[in-house]
Design brief:
The chain contains two helices and ten strands, in the order ααββββββββββ. The protein is an alpha+beta fold. Among the domains are: 51 residues, Rod shape-determining protein MreC, domain 1 (Thrombin, subunit H, Beta Barrel); 56 residues, no CATH class. A hairpin with a 4-residue loop joins β4 and β5.
Length: 195
Protein backbone atom coordinates (compact mmCIF):
# COMPACT_ATOMS: atom_id res chain seq x y z
CA UNK A 1 0.00 0.00 0.00
CA UNK A 2 2.84 2.37 0.84
CA UNK A 3 4.34 1.58 -2.57
CA UNK A 4 1.09 2.53 -4.32
CA UNK A 5 0.91 5.76 -2.35
CA UNK A 6 4.49 6.60 -3.21
CA UNK A 7 3.79 6.00 -6.90
CA UNK A 8 0.69 8.17 -6.66
CA UNK A 9 2.69 11.07 -5.19
CA UNK A 10 5.45 10.64 -7.79
CA UNK A 11 2.85 10.63 -10.54
CA UNK A 12 1.07 13.65 -9.11
CA UNK A 13 4.37 15.47 -8.61
CA UNK A 14 5.37 14.57 -12.17
CA UNK A 15 2.14 16.03 -13.50
CA UNK A 16 2.88 19.36 -11.80
CA UNK A 17 6.64 19.45 -12.30
CA UNK A 18 6.71 18.39 -15.98
CA UNK A 19 4.97 21.56 -17.26
CA UNK A 20 7.23 23.71 -15.09
CA UNK A 21 10.31 22.01 -16.50
CA UNK A 22 8.97 22.23 -20.05
CA UNK A 23 8.15 25.95 -19.87
CA UNK A 24 11.25 26.88 -17.97
CA UNK A 25 13.63 25.32 -20.52
CA UNK A 26 15.15 27.58 -23.13
CA UNK A 27 13.16 27.20 -26.37
CA UNK A 28 15.78 28.89 -28.53
CA UNK A 29 16.55 25.78 -30.61
CA UNK A 30 13.02 25.84 -32.04
CA UNK A 31 12.95 29.64 -32.28
CA UNK A 32 16.33 29.85 -34.01
CA UNK A 33 15.33 27.06 -36.39
CA UNK A 34 12.15 28.93 -37.40
CA UNK A 35 14.09 32.20 -37.62
CA UNK A 36 16.70 30.56 -39.84
CA UNK A 37 14.02 29.17 -42.14
CA UNK A 38 12.37 32.58 -42.39
CA UNK A 39 15.70 34.20 -43.25
CA UNK A 40 16.27 31.65 -46.02
CA UNK A 41 12.77 32.26 -47.41
CA UNK A 42 13.23 36.04 -47.26
CA UNK A 43 16.56 35.77 -49.03
CA UNK A 44 14.99 33.60 -51.72
CA UNK A 45 12.12 36.09 -52.16
CA UNK A 46 14.63 38.95 -52.41
CA UNK A 47 16.52 37.12 -55.17
CA UNK A 48 13.23 36.43 -57.00
CA UNK A 49 12.28 40.11 -56.72
CA UNK A 50 15.64 41.22 -58.19
CA UNK A 51 15.26 38.68 -61.00
CA UNK A 52 11.75 39.96 -61.73
CA UNK A 53 12.99 43.57 -61.81
CA UNK A 54 15.78 42.60 -64.25
CA UNK A 55 13.30 40.76 -66.49
CA UNK A 56 11.01 43.81 -66.48
CA UNK A 57 13.89 46.08 -67.57
CA UNK A 58 14.85 43.60 -70.31
CA UNK A 59 11.23 43.33 -71.50
CA UNK A 60 10.90 47.12 -71.71
CA UNK A 61 14.20 47.33 -73.62
CA UNK A 62 13.03 44.69 -76.09
CA UNK A 63 9.64 46.40 -76.55
CA UNK A 64 11.45 49.66 -77.24
CA UNK A 65 13.70 47.91 -79.75
CA UNK A 66 10.75 46.22 -81.43
CA UNK A 67 8.95 49.55 -81.82
CA UNK A 68 12.14 51.05 -83.25
CA UNK A 69 12.72 48.25 -85.77
CA UNK A 70 9.13 48.51 -87.02
CA UNK A 71 9.89 52.12 -88.08
CA UNK A 72 12.99 51.18 -90.09
CA UNK A 73 12.55 51.14 -93.85
CA UNK A 74 15.96 49.70 -94.77
CA UNK A 75 16.89 46.07 -94.07
CA UNK A 76 18.61 45.65 -90.72
CA UNK A 77 20.44 43.13 -88.57
CA UNK A 78 20.06 42.97 -84.79
CA UNK A 79 23.28 42.26 -82.84
CA UNK A 80 24.49 42.10 -79.26
CA UNK A 81 27.56 43.86 -77.91
CA UNK A 82 30.07 41.14 -77.05
CA UNK A 83 33.06 43.35 -76.22
CA UNK A 84 32.68 46.82 -74.77
CA UNK A 85 34.87 49.80 -75.41
CA UNK A 86 38.52 49.03 -74.83
CA UNK A 87 41.35 51.28 -73.66
CA UNK A 88 42.69 51.80 -77.17
CA UNK A 89 43.28 54.82 -79.38
CA UNK A 90 40.13 54.15 -81.37
CA UNK A 91 36.75 54.21 -79.70
CA UNK A 92 35.07 51.00 -80.78
CA UNK A 93 32.94 48.10 -79.60
CA UNK A 94 32.47 44.57 -80.98
CA UNK A 95 29.10 43.03 -81.87
CA UNK A 96 27.91 39.47 -82.45
CA UNK A 97 27.17 39.68 -86.20
CA UNK A 98 29.53 39.58 -89.17
CA UNK A 99 29.79 38.93 -92.90
CA UNK A 100 27.83 35.67 -92.59
CA UNK A 101 24.91 37.82 -91.37
CA UNK A 102 25.19 40.35 -94.21
CA UNK A 103 27.22 42.96 -92.28
CA UNK A 104 29.71 45.00 -94.31
CA UNK A 105 32.17 47.84 -93.71
CA UNK A 106 30.58 51.30 -93.63
CA UNK A 107 27.12 50.16 -92.53
CA UNK A 108 25.40 52.48 -90.04
CA UNK A 109 24.79 51.29 -86.48
CA UNK A 110 21.81 52.69 -84.58
CA UNK A 111 19.73 51.91 -81.50
CA UNK A 112 16.27 53.07 -80.47
CA UNK A 113 18.01 56.05 -78.80
CA UNK A 114 19.92 57.10 -81.94
CA UNK A 115 23.23 56.81 -83.79
CA UNK A 116 25.98 54.61 -82.34
CA UNK A 117 28.52 54.70 -85.19
CA UNK A 118 29.66 52.77 -88.28
CA UNK A 119 31.04 49.30 -89.01
CA UNK A 120 34.82 49.52 -89.51
CA UNK A 121 35.96 45.87 -89.36
CA UNK A 122 34.07 42.71 -90.27
CA UNK A 123 34.81 39.09 -89.44
CA UNK A 124 32.65 36.13 -90.36
CA UNK A 125 30.76 36.12 -87.02
CA UNK A 126 31.60 39.50 -85.44
CA UNK A 127 32.15 43.15 -86.35
CA UNK A 128 33.78 46.23 -84.84
CA UNK A 129 31.90 49.52 -84.66
CA UNK A 130 33.62 52.91 -84.72
CA UNK A 131 31.71 54.89 -82.12
CA UNK A 132 30.36 58.37 -82.75
CA UNK A 133 32.88 59.79 -80.22
CA UNK A 134 35.96 58.39 -82.03
CA UNK A 135 38.37 61.02 -83.44
CA UNK A 136 37.92 59.58 -86.93
CA UNK A 137 34.11 59.76 -86.82
CA UNK A 138 32.29 62.42 -88.90
CA UNK A 139 28.53 62.51 -89.45
CA UNK A 140 26.55 65.00 -91.53
CA UNK A 141 23.79 66.38 -89.28
CA UNK A 142 20.94 68.88 -89.09
CA UNK A 143 19.96 71.02 -86.13
CA UNK A 144 16.35 69.86 -85.84
CA UNK A 145 14.98 73.25 -84.71
CA UNK A 146 16.23 75.38 -87.61
CA UNK A 147 17.35 72.72 -90.15
CA UNK A 148 20.90 74.14 -90.30
CA UNK A 149 23.41 71.62 -91.62
CA UNK A 150 26.73 70.79 -89.97
CA UNK A 151 29.20 68.02 -89.25
CA UNK A 152 29.51 66.24 -85.94
CA UNK A 153 33.03 64.92 -85.25
CA UNK A 154 34.45 62.76 -82.49
CA UNK A 155 36.47 64.77 -79.98
CA UNK A 156 38.31 64.42 -76.67
CA UNK A 157 36.86 62.90 -73.47
CA UNK A 158 34.29 60.85 -75.38
CA UNK A 159 32.47 63.94 -76.57
CA UNK A 160 31.78 65.33 -80.02
CA UNK A 161 32.42 68.68 -81.69
CA UNK A 162 29.75 70.35 -83.80
CA UNK A 163 31.21 72.12 -86.85
CA UNK A 164 28.89 74.77 -88.33
CA UNK A 165 29.24 77.72 -90.69
CA UNK A 166 30.28 80.91 -88.94
CA UNK A 167 27.31 82.88 -87.58
CA UNK A 168 24.98 79.89 -87.40
CA UNK A 169 22.48 80.07 -84.55
CA UNK A 170 22.73 77.15 -82.13
CA UNK A 171 21.26 76.83 -78.63
CA UNK A 172 21.94 74.59 -75.66
CA UNK A 173 19.44 71.75 -75.79
CA UNK A 174 19.15 71.75 -79.62
CA UNK A 175 18.58 68.23 -80.95
CA UNK A 176 20.88 66.98 -83.70
CA UNK A 177 19.62 64.50 -86.30
CA UNK A 178 21.20 62.83 -89.32
CA UNK A 179 20.80 64.85 -92.52
CA UNK A 180 20.61 61.85 -94.85
CA UNK A 181 22.51 63.83 -97.49
CA UNK A 182 25.88 62.10 -97.26
CA UNK A 183 27.10 58.87 -95.74
CA UNK A 184 25.06 55.80 -94.95
CA UNK A 185 22.62 57.15 -92.35
CA UNK A 186 18.99 57.74 -93.25
CA UNK A 187 17.55 61.20 -92.58
CA UNK A 188 16.13 62.08 -89.17
CA UNK A 189 17.90 59.64 -86.83
CA UNK A 190 18.67 61.27 -83.45
CA UNK A 191 22.39 61.89 -82.92
CA UNK A 192 22.52 63.92 -79.71
CA UNK A 193 21.87 67.26 -78.02
CA UNK A 194 23.95 70.43 -77.73
CA UNK A 195 25.17 71.09 -74.19
Amino acid sequence: MAGKRLRFWFLLGGIFIAPLVLFSTNMTPWTSNISGMLKIQMSSLGINLLDHAEQTVELNRLRNLLGFTEKLEDPFTVAEVILGQRKTADKSIRVSKGSLDGVSIGMPVVTAEGVVGRIIRVGSKMSDIQLLVDFGSNIDILIQRNRVRGVLSGFANEECRLNLQRGTEVKIGDTLITSGLTGSFSKGIPVGKVF
